[in-house]
UniProtKB/TrEMBL annotation:
Transmembrane segments: none
Pathway(s) per entry: Ketone degradation; acetoin degradation
Occurrences of domain Histone deacetylase (ranges): 22-313
Protein's name in the database: Acetoin utilization protein AcuC
Database matches in SUPFAM superfamilies: Arginase/deacetylase
Organism, scientific name: Desulfuromonas versatilis
InterPro entries: AcuC (IPR003085), HDACs (IPR000286), His_deacetylse_dom (IPR023801), His_deacetylse_dom_sf (IPR037138), Ureohydrolase_dom_sf (IPR023696)
Leader sequence segment: none
Amino acid sequence: MSERFAFIYSSRFDGYSYGSEHPFKVQRYRLTYELIRELGLLDGSGIEMVETPQAPEAAPGCFHRQSYLDTLKEFSREDHPRANFIYGLGDVENPVFKGMYEWSLLSCGGTMEAVRQVVDGGCRAAFSMAGGHHHAHAARASGFSYLNDAVIAIQGLLERGLRVAYVDIDAHHGDGVQEAFYRSDRVLTISLHESGRDFFPHTGFCNELGEGRGYGYSVNVPFRRHADDLIFEQAFRRIVLPLLEAFSPDVLVTQMGVDTLRSDPLSRLEFTTGAIEFATRAFLTTGLPWAAIGGGGYDKCNVARCWALLWSVMTGQAVPERLPPGFCAAARALGFAGELLRDPPRLARPDDYASAQEALERNLAFLERKLFPLHGISGRVAL
């Protein structure tokens, strides 16, 4: 019997907008879907297209404070300007718009459905690209995130007695998810991101290792600006893979933000699509039930290319090197002049690479020294 994979999507995404000037463009989901469809990646054996459900009204209450949820609902009813800065609502970063609560429930429902597909639905892996709002806190919107879909979905798994590994490869630290499970030894959170020393959300340093029973289960690998694919792969092989093997979770949840690409307007990393393909293959080869969710990415065409490649690798389907004509036409209208699905290999400038490598070595040595004994991992893992 062939393996099954679930692609979770809805045309209802198109009904929401953060505003024409906001960097978070909901239309990137439609663009990604159209590219995946034009590449024929939804037609293979074992591929299931699943309509994104809205999360149950009660679901966010497992993490978010009720007074915050009540304010989200109230502000969501109308389109005129509202603000509550205690809850992080109404500024440039987290605008108030009509339907924002319903949009957030839809995003959350997609992540919950991805988890359900791999835990109860018999799927090898599932992808819900509208998830990954990892900055939302219990009572505060942050970083374009209103409800923390990953936390809500993981809480549901914990209630069933399951152990979860959460790996976040977005350019920004997964601070909201880390905060939710900082004192838990049942969730291993790993975030690989641009250093928060001078970058939002200004957290995610190596010494944030958890507290109490959770000590050693919060893992952060910050990258110096201009880190490239080689830097990423070293960190992944030396930290992520051995810790996943040692922790041996029941379920793997990954946040697949693609704002790490060198041409993304909001980060200073220099990854290519190759880093996304590498991570996807690595997650797949763990053999764990795997729910992948979206995340950052502020160049719409880059997002579409990366997540199409993610889906092709996840499902084992070959893709051409050149973008299909329909997507090329749509991309040109958005100012994207490229014609290749994959980025050509590219390394950082030698001086930038040397600085990033030096910082990486310090961070990895610290993490190996602090974490490996706690998880029963002996010695440095060979590259």
